[in-house]
Design a protein that fits this description.
The chain is α/β, with parallel strands linked by helices. It has two domains: about 120 residues, Rossmann fold (3-Layer(aba) Sandwich), CATH 3.40.50; about 90 residues, Arc Repressor Mutant, subunit A. It contains eight helices and twelve strands. The chain has a five-stranded parallel beta sheet with strand order 2-1-3-4-5, sandwiched between helices. The protein has a four-stranded antiparallel beta sheet with strand order 6-7-8-9, covered by helices on one side. Strand 7 and strand 8 form a beta hairpin. Helix 3 packs parallel to helix 4. This is Response regulator transcription factor.
Length: about 220
């Protein structure tokens, strides 16, 4: 899953990127509102962490422009302590949740997981597909109760397919959602990750739909 973090305070921005990357996300950073608006308008993010106090273009204006343009990705806004009017304005502008600074990183991670789950129509923190279970809280993946050892990119591919289980996902879509913007993307490597996953997952878990992409198959 790929996230945009729009935060102009360098230390916090780097802390967010490190924590989110450690949790298995691909992360892009923007340190001003104009860049954040452009990136969110052009790239297919699974969620956004948006500070309202951005330079050049404030976060509330960025959010309003996204929503006016039909951009529907879930947005978690960051507000200053006791700035209740910002929280109300942010929710009214189309934010899905808010967090007040300072905050605990664990709470931000939990709120993001919940937003991404709800967007994908998932109620539980554990995603299940037949014998496969992916715990979004711990990043642990099991098959019939046995833990699987996955690389970070294998995990990102599987996590995206688990959130879209039963749907056809193109190689291009996977490439857009598992790599950060500054990563040297190569859609051909998706086939490599799929091949490795097939060796680790129960047989038939990942179907190839010729000319369209891949689908995670969940037996009854």
């Amino acid at each position: 899953m790929r996230l945009l973090v729009a935060e102009d305070e360098p230390t916090l921005a780097n802390q967010l990127r490190e924590a989110l990357a450690a949790a298995g996300y691909a992360v892009d950073l923007a340190d001003n509102g104009r860049d954040a608006h452009f990136m969110g308008d052009q790239e297919p993010y699974d969620a956004v962490v948006l500070d309202l106090g951005l330079p050049q273009l404030d976060g509330l204006s960025v959010l309003r422009r996204w929503r006016s343009a039909g951009r529907a990705m879930p947005v978690l806004i960051l507000t200053a302590r006791d700035a209740w009017h910002e929280k109300v304005a942010g929710i009214d502008a189309g934010a899905d949740d808010y967090l007040t600074k300072p905050f605990h990183m664990e709470e931000l991670l939990a709120r993001l997981r919940a937003l991404i789950r709800r967007t994908a129509g998932q109620a539980s923190a554990e995603l299940q597909c037949g014998p496969l279970v992916l715990d979004t809280r711990s990043g642990r993946v099991t098959a019939s109760g046995q833990a699987l050892s996955l690389t970070s990119h294998e995990y990102r591919v599987l996590a995206y397919l688990m959130h879209r289980r039963g749907e056809i996902v193109s190689r291009t879509e996977l490439t857009e959602h598992i790599y950060a913007q500054d990563f040297d993307r190569d859609s051909n490597t998706i086939e490599v990750f799929i091949g490795r996953l097939r060796k680790k997952l129960p047989p038939g878990s990942i179907e190839t739909v010729r000319g369209l992409g891949y689908r995670l198959s969940c037996p009854a």
